[in-house]
Amino acid sequence: QLQVQESGPGLVEPSETLSLTCSVSGGSISSMNYYWGWIRQPPGKGLEWIGSIYYGGTTYYNPSLESRVTISVDTSKNHFSLKMSSVTAADTAVYYCASVRLATVRAHFFGMDVWGQGTAVTVSS
Amino acid sequence: DIHMTQSPSSLSASVGDRVTITCRASQTINNYLNWYQQKPGKAPRLLIYAAYSLQSGVPSRFSGGGSGTDFTLTISSLQPEDFASYYCQQSYSPSLTFGQGTRLEIK
Description:
The complex is a heterodimer of chains A (125) and B (107). Chain A has 125 residues and is mainly β. Chain A is built from no helices and eleven strands.
């Protein structure tokens, strides 16, 4: 059964780079049926999609975060990663990774069907 | 970007009630509309994908409807475990967007 799990530091200093990794188990990150995504949720607020990546390296980013975000994939380690630069207190959130299922029409998606438990990241000095 | 608007933002209801949450997209998204349930301190859970397809393991009291720009999530008979937050999400564009959420509370 497919599972994903986030890992990374829980505290990041302002202006530094946030780095998280999502490990995929029970399936291959090289599946043709999935993209892999990052989502975040600030305390008490709603869900915000950060970006998605395909095993071949194709990426899509939230336009509001694109200038600061890089998502990469390592198929040999079956994981994908998030880097967000120049963080501020506004980036404090629970960060989730998830599988994003491709639709039959490949330009679209059928939703995020497997989620990690989330990892809390606080930006503070 | 495709903007998603949910209503209501919060809703009070009783066990056994039938409730409907609506979601409107700023442009047509065909049927690429998904619904998630989130309980406090937990990750979201996919309930409905492609507007009306029930995700495996989700109870049949949950149903989705709509097409184009207007969509609904209906819970036919509320159970105690259904009190949670609900989010819609469009997946027509690869730049995915969520609605702001609906908090379903016990009356």
